[in-house]
Design a protein that fits this description.
Order of helices and strands: EEHEEHEEEEHHHEEEEEEEEEEH
Number of strands: 18
Number of helices: 6
Strand content: 25-35%
Largest sheet: 7 strands, antiparallel
Radius of gyration: 17 Å
Structural class: alpha+beta
Shape: globular
Helix content: 10-25%
Length: 289
């Protein structure tokens, strides 16, 4: 299963260090379940997006993903990819950038020709082959339709997808330079949120199977909101998003959430519908090589 991680410390810029594969002797390496790509998205002081990502082939050098990256930003998104659609290229590796926003997704959406037709001129925003980047383009299109309201754009886009396209899962994190959005839909994969107070202890989050390790000393003194595919420490404040719940963290760390889709997809896919590669990408441990 692809791993998602998002962090907002708004309105403060904070330093955080990320390892997208935690260590050479991680459980992921021991079981030869290496990901197909890793990526980290941040924003510079002037709000300019920075995306660092790389596809990874089986048994090849994973130094890029294991290297410690200390970055400063208000918002962060990290992604570990197990490919379901699209080849192992940089263009197909998350996060994606559109209109100075960054996006990462875990799931499978089918019916891409119909989605391409719905995108119209926005299809030019899609550089790769993935369903994820097309979903992002539809969100961008609907956000423009709603006058730049990202919450309305996500709600509109995913409602159209849920009604028209076959869907296995559509968990996503979208960030701007100051805000964060996260959606879990439907209840196929879990997605958790932690509203973390200034607790006097460093942020130290470590994912399962050696993936996504995040550390920040600065967040001992500042509150933050974290979204992740799994609980990443023993803090009792972690809670799962509900199916169809859209979370928005604004530029002052205000948190709002609401269920924007209260029914499952009209054409809901099961693992048996996906085929070997896509089904493996959606399992809890990723693909067995």
């Amino acid at each position: 299963m692809c791993r998602l991680f998002g962090l907002s410390a708004a309105p403060h810029r904070v330093q955080a260090t990320f390892w997208l594969l935690d260590a050479p002797d991680s459980l992921a390496a021991q079981s030869r379940r290496e990901p197909d790509g890793t990526g980290l998205g941040t924003f510079g002081p002037g709000g300019s997006p920075r995306v660092e990502k790389q596809p990874i082939a089986a048994y090849e050098d994973t130094a890029f993903a294991r290297e410690a990256r200390e970055r400063e930003s208000v918002t962060f998104v990290a992604h570990i990819r197990y490919a379901s659609t699209g080849g192992l290229t940089a263009a197909n590796t998350h996060p994606f950038r559109q209109r100075d926003r960054l996006f990462a997704h875990n799931g499978v959406v089918r019916g891409l020709p119909e989605l391409d037709a719905e995108l119209g001129d926005y299809r030019r925003l899609v550089a790769g082959d993935t369903d994820s980047e097309r979903v992002f383009a539809l969100i961008t299109a609907r956000t423009d339709r709603h006058g730049g309201d990202v919450t309305a754009g996500i709600t509109d886009a995913v409602a159209w997808i849920a009604d028209r396209l076959p869907v296995f899962a559509l968990n996503l994190i979208l960030i701007s330079a100051t805000e964060l959005w996260a959606l879990r839909y439907p209840d196929t994969h879990e997605l958790f949120v932690l509203e973390r107070p200034a607790a006097g202890r460093h942020l130290e989050h470590v994912g399962g199977a050696g993936t996504v390790h995040a550390h920040s000393r600065r967040l001992a003194d500042l509150p933050a909101v974290v979204v992740a595919s799994e609980r990443m420490d023993d803090d009792p404040g972690w809670r799962p998003l509900r199916s169809g719940e859209l979370l928005h963290v604004d530029g002052r760390l205000g948190v709002r959430s609401a269920v924007v889709l209260d029914s499952p997809p009209r054409h809901r896919l099961s693992l048996a519908d996906l085929g070997t590669v896509a089904a493996a990408s959606q399992s809890e441990t990723g693909r067995a090589r």
